[in-house]
Amino acid sequence: MAFVAFFISKFALLIHLILLSLSISSSALNVTEILSAHPDLSDFARLLSSSPVADDLAGRSSVTLLAVPNAELRRSSAGIPLSSASVVADVLRYHILLRYLSWPELRRLPSSGELVTTLYQTTGRAADGIGAVNLTISSSTGAVTIKTPAPFSSSPNATVLAPIAAVPYNLSILAVDSLLVPYGADLAASEGGVAAPPQSEAVNVTRILAEIGKGFNVVASMLAASGVAEEFGEDERGAGITVFAPADAAFADLPPATDGLQSLPAEEKAVVLRFHVLHSYYPLGSLESIVNPVQPTLQTERAGAGRFTLNITRVNGSVAIDTGIVQATITQTVFDENPVAIFGVSNVLLPKELFGSPSVAAKPAANVEVETAMSPEDGSLGIPPSPGMGVVGSYGGDGRRGRWTAAIICIGLCLLV
Length: 417
Prior knowledge:
Strand content: 15-25%
Largest sheet: 7 strands, mixed
Signal peptide: 1-28
Family: Belongs to the fasciclin-like AGP family.
Domain FAS1: 28-180, 202-349
Number of helices: 17
Protein name: Fasciclin-like arabinogalactan protein 4
GO biological process, one term: abscisic acid-activated signaling pathway
Number of strands: 14
Distance between the termini: 19 Å
């Protein structure tokens, strides 16, 4: 009997430790880290990580996050003061559903639709208590639409594009094609009732390169002549920009095969220039410790996910930038004031899509892992997942293996005791 009692006590301890380890692994989910594996969602991830909503989300379970890809975010955010931290926070809260919705569950929505409460409802600022969204599915196309339940609302609807990631029963991330705005939200005021500050004038990147920087006359003149510099204003008012500016000497040292860079057609020259700009503000410290080395550029938005990306890593104490055919390093900080950072780089960044051989261009991006996608059951949505938007089966690429590892450790501890 003593042996049986001993065995039961050890078994109870084992179960307790396993449950504890599983709860710890669930609570440690980092949504922004999951999003970092998807360059098409970098702007949305940056808004989320720079707001208090990321911390609110980290302490919750059984939620669904509606993430907006970069191009759709820029298009649908017109008129929304993303420079106001409180406005951004409330809009983001409206994109967090307080219920875990898997892809198959979306396909089983009732024809009448279903109301799902959002995190915005918990703030107490939801007009008329409407802090929910209405999910409906089209009987003809299978498309899932998300909209505010308020009648006569001018807020745009959003359509689910594809599943992005899922940690079963804990976190589901879905891509949607538009930013959702809570009904009755005062987009011109902060949480304290103070009007949002007017947007500041765009930073003149070409003037900084020509006057403040030394030896960047070629890239400054190319940016001005191509009209690419004029595209920066809207980006600065969003997630900001990071510009990699080759020194004049870098243009003089171009290999023979690319001596005709200056004689390229205007549009291809603009492509090369956009390839030197990240559509997010990164100070030097952030580049040195960047989580996802594969970063989209301004040209990625035009060409599609996975194309015209830069691989940014730290090598021998310096920030290295790899295009697939050219390696460069950051040589100096020319300008750094949120939302614009400008860095001098040692070489002209040549995109493999224009200058590389087919074998090089087909080389897969490094350090990006995508697990088996949780694909639509029959594809009847009619909206295929965007490139680069694979669905990981669990957090960190292998959450189940981590939980079983924790369980095995617990068994070992019990046996030792």
